[in-house]
């Protein structure tokens, strides 16, 4: 099983709706990757800064590359900063080790993709990603 384009769009629309519902005012960017780490869908709200897509991609990419949610990568960065720095170098700098990157798992627990979102605090970003993933019928794995 993999994430379809329709499910990817559902994740994005619900994540952005969640941001609005909880009163986030800064523009958000969301990236959905499939299980191979390929961009399935992406959307940035009007006014999003130029690096937001890359930040969202880096959050999601780290999840796929390491097989853990970005909250776990963040904890590892705090405990072993040199290790995460080295891993990021191996990933050509495409890893953003803060919350807001969430693995997408199917009902059996298999990793089928990841979502990266950015624009507000990392905790709020993660909250929106989880809402989108769950609304699409998948399990969200933040790495907590």
Describe the fold and architecture:
By secondary structure, this protein is of the alpha+beta class. Helix content is 46%, strand content 19%. It has five helices and five strands; from the N terminus they run αββαααββαβ. It has a five-stranded antiparallel sheet with strand order 2-1-4-3-5. Strand 3 and strand 4 form a beta hairpin. Helix 1 (5-21) packs across helix 5 and helix 3 packs across helix 4. The radius of gyration is 14 Å and the shape is globular. The protein starts with a helix and ends with a strand. The mean pLDDT is 95.
Task: Give me the secondary-structure topology.
Layout (H helix, E strand, L loop, with lengths): L4 H17 L7 E6 L4 E6 L7 H15 L3 H10 L1 H10 L10 E5 L5 E8 L3 H14 L3 E3 L3
Antiparallel strand pairs: 1-2, 1-4, 3-4, 3-5
Helix pairs in contact: 1-5, 3-4
Q: Considering DSSP H and I runs of 4 or more, what fraction of the residues is helical?
A: 40-55%
Please give the largest β-sheet. 5 strands, antiparallel
- What's the oligomerization state? single chain
Order of helices and strands: HEEHHHEEHE
Radius of gyration: 14 Å
Shape: globular
User: How many individual β-strands?
Assistant: 5
How many individual helices? 5
Distance separating the two termini: 24 Å
Kindly name the structural category. Answer: alpha+beta
Mean pLDDT, rounded to whole units? Answer: 95
Strand content: 15-25%
Strand order in the largest sheet: 2-1-4-3-5
Any low-confidence stretches, pLDDT <50, length ≥5? none
């Amino acid at each position: 099983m993999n994430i379809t384009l329709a499910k990817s769009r559902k994740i994005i629309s619900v994540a952005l709706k969640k941001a609005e519902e909880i009163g986030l005012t800064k523009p958000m960017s969301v990236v959905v990757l499939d299980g191979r780490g390929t961009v399935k869908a992406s959307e940035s709200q009007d006014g999003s800064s130029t690096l937001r897509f890359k930040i969202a991609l880096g959050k999601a990419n780290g999840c796929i590359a390491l097989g853990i949610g970005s909250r776990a990568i963040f904890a590892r960065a705090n405990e072993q900063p040199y290790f995460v720095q080295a891993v990021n170098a191996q990933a050509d700098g495409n890893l953003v080790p803060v919350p807001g990157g969430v693995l997408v798992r199917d009902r059996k627990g298999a990793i089928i993709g990841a979502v990266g979102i950015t624009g507000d605090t990392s905790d709020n970003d993660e909250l929106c990603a989880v809402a989108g993933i769950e609304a699409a019928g998948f399990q969200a794995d933040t790495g907590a």
